[in-house]
Design the sequence.
């Protein structure tokens, strides 16, 4: 019997900007239902890799496979239709609109009107922010805003959620809460998180892929990665310095 293909995989994925090789022959695979963290020091290639996965960049070479199907070069909308939810640093909610309206609009891209209403309410409930439904997004505190943005990503019901620095700008307590929430989201969705915060990586405690100079330096359990001297050298050492 042949094993089913991974949910998402890259094969020798490479992205160059002129003479800079931002992502250099990276082959990574994410299983159905997995929760994976991607880390690395500044300039390691995480954001570029993220953008290649989400269709914001077309890689120079290599492939992106979704359940074994070649989806290299699909734009973000086509990636969303496959079942990939993406949270970038760019706000998805409109400041002047009530939160629930913004979440409905996000769901509406893939679902009908009535279903989108149901999905938006369910997403707000799940993220513990149903009480903020009618508040204009522009009036939310930073942490609340991050949760509301997350609601726009999960509301359509993606199989995989890819998050770019979901705890950016959060304090320790909010970071810990967000880590718990992401583990909870992982019950229903595979999740890939690009993150800097080591507290977060510790709290998530799953497989970690470490990028360095456009390549995968180490891929292992959070415990082992956090005590790996190579990782300390390129990441923690530099971060501490
Ligand atoms: N649009 C671009 N044009 C030219 N060079 C780029 C571009 N985007 C990224 N790079 C270069 O590619 C390399 C990887 O950058 P990237 O932003 O992917 O790293 P990163 O790990 O996400 O870093 P950070 O944590 O600082 O966001 C860096 O050397 C960067 O200068």
Sequence:
């Amino acid at each position: 019997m042949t094993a089913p293909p991974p949910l998402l995989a890259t094969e020798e994925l490479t992205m160059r900007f002129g003479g800079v090789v931002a992502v250099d022959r990276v082959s990574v695979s994410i299983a159905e239902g997995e929760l994976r963290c991607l880390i690395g020091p500044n300039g390691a290639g995480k954001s570029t890799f993220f953008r290649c996965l989400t269709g914001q960049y077309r890689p120079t070479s290599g492939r992106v496979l979704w359940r074994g199907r070649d989806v290299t070069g699909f734009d973000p909308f086509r990636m969303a239709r496959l079942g990939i939810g993406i949270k970038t640093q760019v706000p998805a909610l409109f400041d002047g609109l009530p939160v629930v309206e913004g979440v409905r609009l996000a769901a509406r891209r893939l679902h009908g009107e009535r279903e989108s209403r149901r999905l938006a309410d369910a997403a707000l409930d799940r993220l513990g922010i149903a009480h903020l439904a009618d508040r204009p997004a522009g009036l939310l505190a930073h942490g609340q805003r991050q949760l509301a943005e997350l609601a726009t990503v999960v509301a359509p019901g993606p199989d995989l959620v890819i998050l770019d620095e979901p705890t950016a700008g959060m304090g320790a307590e909010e970071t810990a809460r967000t880590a718990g929430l992401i583990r909870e989201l992982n019950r229903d969705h595979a999740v890939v998180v690009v993150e800097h915060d080591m507290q977060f990586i510790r709290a998530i405690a799953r497989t970690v892929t470490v990028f360095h100079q456009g390549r995968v330096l180490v891929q292992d359990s959070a415990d082992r990665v956090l005590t790996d001297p190579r990782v300390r050298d390129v990441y923690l050492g530099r971060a501490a310095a």
User: Anything to note?
Assistant: The two ends are 51 Å apart (CA to CA).
